[in-house]
Design goal:
Blueprint lengths: L1 H18 L10 H7 L3 H20 L2 H19 L8 H26 L3 H20 L7 H17 L5 H16 L14 H23 L3 H22 L1
Length: 245
C-alpha cells in the first residue's frame, strides 16, 4: 500500500512537471557543450535550430522552415568567426572542414528559403542539423574507445600489478595490452584523427613496438627491463592523449 501511494505521488509530480513545461532533463547537445566551453556562437545557433528541428520539421511547418533560412545565415556568422585552439594541425583542419561543409549547406538552405522551395528546405534540414552537431563536436575532446581500453589495462599494470609485484597479473595484463594495441589500425581511428593519420599511425606503431618489448621481458622474466619499457609506454600513451585527443 505504501509503495502504491509513493508511486502515485511520483506520477502526480511528474504530471505537474509536464504541465508546467518541466519535462525530464535532456542531455546537452554538442552545440550546448561547445557553448559551455566558451564557444558561445554554438549556443546561439542552437537556439535558432532547435525549434526548426524539434517543432517545425516534424510538423512539416514549411512557413517556419522557410523563415529559418536567414536566421541560420545570421547565426552561422558567429561560428564562422571562431578561432578555437587545437592540439594538432590535423584537428584544426578537421574542424575547418566540418565548418566549411556546414556553411555550404546553410547557404544552399538559405537560397532555397529565398526561393520559397518548401520541399528543399525540408529535405536539407536533417543534413544541416547533422552538420551543426558534427562541427560543434569537432571542437571537443575526441572519444577513442579502443585507446581508452588500453589506458585501463595500463593503469592496472602501473598502479596495481607492478607495486604488488604480481607476476601473474603482469603477465596476463601484458598479453591483454598487446592484443589491444595490435587492434589499433586505420579502421579504428575516429574521424577527427583521419586528418593526422600518418602521424597518428606512426605513434601507434611506437606503442606497438614497446608493448612487444614488454611481452618479451615478461617471457624472459626480466622485470627490470619490463619496468623500463612499461614506464616508457605509459609516458607515450599519455603524450598521445595530450597531442591528439
Amino acid at each position: 500500500m505504501r509503495f502504491l501511494t509513493a508511486l502515485l505521488l511520483i506520477l502526480s509530480l511528474f504530471t505537474v512537471g509536464l504541465i508546467a513545461g518541466e519535462g525530464p532533463v535532456k542531455e546537452n547537445c554538442p552545440g550546448d557543450q561547445a557553448a559551455e566551453q566558451g564557444l558561445n556562437p554554438f549556443g546561439t545557433f542552437h537556439e535558432v535550430i532547435a525549434p526548426a528541428w524539434h517543432q517545425a520539421w516534424p510538423a512539416k511547418d514549411y512557413d517556419a522552415l522557410i523563415a529559418a533560412g536567414p536566421k541560420f545565415e545570421e547565426a552561422f556568422q558567429g561560428i564562422a568567426g571562431l578561432s578555437p585552439k587545437f592540439t594538432s594541425e590535423g584537428r584544426q583542419k578537421y574542424f575547418e572542414n566540418c565548418r566549411k561543409q556546414l556553411g555550404e549547406i546553410i547557404a544552399t538552405y538559405a537560397q532555397a528559403a529565398r526561393d520559397g522551395d518548401k520541399e528543399k528546405v525540408y529535405d536539407l534540414l536533417p543534413a544541416l542539423h547533422s552538420g551543426f552537431e558534427k562541427t560543434a563536436a569537432a571542437t571537443m575532446k575526441i572519444e577513442y574507445k579502443q585507446l581508452d581500453g588500453i589506458a585501463v589495462t595500463m593503469d592496472l599494470i602501473m598502479n596495481k600489478h607492478l607495486p604488488d609485484n604480481n607476476h601473474d597479473g603482469i603477465t596476463g595484463s601484458t598479453g591483454t595490452l598487446v592484443t589491444k594495441v595490435d587492434a589499433l589500425d586505420e579502421e579504428s581511428l575516429p574521424d577527427a584523427l583521419t586528418w593526422d593519420k600518418k602521424a597518428v599511425m606512426t605513434d601507434i606503431a611506437r606503442l606497438k613496438a614497446i608493448a612487444t618489448q614488454m611481452k618479451k621481458c615478461c617471457d624472459s622474466d626480466d622485470m627490470d627491463g619490463y619496468k623500463t619499457h612499461a614506464t616508457e609506454f605509459d609516458r607515450k600513451l599519455k603524450a598521445f592523449y595530450e597531442t591528439y585527443l
